[in-house]
């Protein structure tokens, strides 16, 4: 590794997989974060100006100069092999969400990173939405009675042509739904666990298009989540938490917060700039951040959920 943890600039980074999220969020966030310099790209299909471009991560690791870290922006099904190669080559690794295809492979990556001098960061971008940390603080001292999560979007608008998302390991509607679970697991004062799950799976697909979930916690909170990819009209990404001392609502994916109907002023900072600031801190301090709890709830839902066959889905 060529990263000097005492400096605040100059972590050379390479992106792997130039799809929607790499273009929309990673490239602008890296450009805006002084600690990082985008030095390389590994893409099966395309190139970028002003960076060294390779078709594979292997070629990038073998040839790219001054790449200290990689951001893996591929689908989850191919993430483990890429991350393991990068860690073995002594690189810091940022994982898009979900951090892998299975819990076990993510835990193995965490074990590989431990003591290696490389930082592993399993990102949950929704946790960096502006309302999430104030919500966590407000809830920390309160007793939660109910939580209602509505995560309803139009898959044709947000995931056009993404076949991997319907394949095993692609998670279907849990690909966005896991963002709600990443917020829930961050803001709740106690751990939650699933009690019921219904998964609606199109007859021609491997992954659910909708899910209804019920959770509780050690104090008996009544927590329900509805994920649906068939939403037309207004798109909903809201979490409403009723406590004994008032009601909190996170809207628009956590970027808006209201308490008892009053909007709470929030910073305008975006999610991905926060992710890269955190990654820089992890690299500087030689630590990792790997929380599998959102993915564990998805695994629980697939393990104990009742499957309901629904109409075939076509683009
Ligand atoms: P995407 O548009 O399909 O892009 C994924 C890219 O990964 C592809 O363009 C391809 O880039 C590369 N890739 C490597 N192996 C692949 C394979 N076997 N199948 C398909 N692509 C492969 O997907 P995305 O929306 O950017 O999502 C990527 C990850 O980011 C997912 O885990 C997703 O959950 C997460 N994420 C997405 C969003 C969003 O709004 N889309 C938001 C937050 C997080 P090359 O052709 O350059 O190799």
Automatic annotation (TrEMBL):
SUPFAM superfamilies: NAD(P)-binding Rossmann-fold domains. One of its GO terms (molecular function) is nucleotide binding. Residues 12-121 form the Gfo/Idh/MocA-like oxidoreductase N-terminal domain. Pfam families: GFO_IDH_MocA (PF01408). This is Gfo/Idh/MocA family oxidoreductase. It comes from Pararhizobium mangrovi.
């Amino acid at each position: 590794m060529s990263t000097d943890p005492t400096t605040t600039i100059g972590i050379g980074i390479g992106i792997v997989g130039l799809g929607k999220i790499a273009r929309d969020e990673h490239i602008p966030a890296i450009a805006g974060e002084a600690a990082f310099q985008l030095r390389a790209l590994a893409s099966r299909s395309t190139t970028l100006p002003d960076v060294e471009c390779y078709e594979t991560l292997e070629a990038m690791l073998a040839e790219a100069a001054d790449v200290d870290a990689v951001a893996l922006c591929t689908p989850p099904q191919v993430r483990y092999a890429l991350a393991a190669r990068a860690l073995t080559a002594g690189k810091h690794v940022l994982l898009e969400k979900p951090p892998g295809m299975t819990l076990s492979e993510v835990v193995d990556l965490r074990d590989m990173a431990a003591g290696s001098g490389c930082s592993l960061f399993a990102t949950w971008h929704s946790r960096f939405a502006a309302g999430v940390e104030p919500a966590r603080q407000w809830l920390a001292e309160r007793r939660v009675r109910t939580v209602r999560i509505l995560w309803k979007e139009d898959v044709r608008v947000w995931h056009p042509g993404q076949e991997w998302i319907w394949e095993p390991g692609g998670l279907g509607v849990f690909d966005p739904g896991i963002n709600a679970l990443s917020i829930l697991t961050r803001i709740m004062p106690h751990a939650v666990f699933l009690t019921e799950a219904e998964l609606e799976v199109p007859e021609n697909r491997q992954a659910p298009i909708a899910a209804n979930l019920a959770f509780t916690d050690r104090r008996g909170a009544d927590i329900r989540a509805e994920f649906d990819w068939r939403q037309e009209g207004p798109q909903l990404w809201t979490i409403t938490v009723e406590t004994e001392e008032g009601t909190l609502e996170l809207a628009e994916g956590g970027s808006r917060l209201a308490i008892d109907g009053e909007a709470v002023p929030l910073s305008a900072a975006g999610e991905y700039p926060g992710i890269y600031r955190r990654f820089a801190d992890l690299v500087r301090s030689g630590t990792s951040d790997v929380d599998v709890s959102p993915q564990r709830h998805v695994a629980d839902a697939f393990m104990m959920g009742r499957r309901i066959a629904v109409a075939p889905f076509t683009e």
